[in-house]
Amino acid sequence: MKPIAALFDLPDFTQKNYDDILAELKSNGVWPPKQDEGLLSHVSFQKGDNWCVVDVWESEEQFMAFGQKRLFPIFGKLGLNPAPPQVFPVHIFARGGMTKEIISA
Predict the structure, then answer these.
(1) Cis omega (within 30 of 0) on the bond before 32?
(2) Would 24 disulfide with which of 19, 45, 71, 74, CB 3.0-4.6 Å?
(3) Which CATH architecture has domain 4-101?
């Protein structure tokens, strides 16, 4: 399995949209994901008029499993239709004194 970064660039989203999604995930008992589900990091921020989220997952398969089972149904429930995220292979992941080097082939 190769780690990936998933970038959601959400021009029509607001902080309230993001907070509503997070509230739904929490009320469903699936946020934060369990350690074995593969989420390594999550960050959200506003970039100009856009809301953005960047996740790092242990694999694209784990990211897609979380999306299909937990995240994407919430988009529908809340009437949101974001563009699919861009997914990139991770080369180096560093977190608080820990570095995981991933060398792409």
Answers:
(1) yes
(2) 74
(3) 2-Layer Sandwich (3.30)
